[in-house]
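User:
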Amino acid sequence: MFGAYYAKLLRDKTAASQQREVAQASDIEKTYRALCVVTGNRELPPVGVVIRHYLEVSKRAPKTFHDDDEEGEHQECLLRIKRISNVVDDLTAHQREVLDLPSEASGVFEVEIELLTGRTHQIRGQFMKLGFPIAGDRLYGGGSRVWEAGDEEELR
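Assistant: Predicted structure:
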C-alpha cells in the first residue's frame, strides 16, 4: 500500500520537474550515494546546482547522454549533487585494483545525489558525462577495463 503511494509521489515529482517546476515539485526526496572516480586534474562537480543532460532513447546499454537536445528527441535528465565528502587523492595501485578502478584514476570521492528525474542508468550516465564515472562501473568507464559486447553475464 505505502509502496504504491510512494511510487506515485515520485512519478508526480518527475512530471512536475519536467515542467520546469523543479523547486516546487514535491517535498519528497530520494537520495542516492555513490563513490566516483577522479582522473586528471578535474574540478569536482558543483554542489547544489541542478545538472542537466539528455538521454538518447534506446533499449541497449550503455545509454548515450548528451549535453543538449537541439532536435528535441531526447529525455531530459536532472539531478542535484547534495554533498561531496571523503575525497581521497593519490590512490595506490593496490587501492585501484581493490576498487576495480581504471589505471588513470587519481582519486575517489563520495557523492550524495538527489534525482529530480528518474531515467534508466541516469546517475551512471550523467556522472560519466561529467567525467567522474561511478567507481567499479565498467559499463560507464569507472572500471578497470572497458565493457565489451558479450560481457553481459559477468556484469550481472
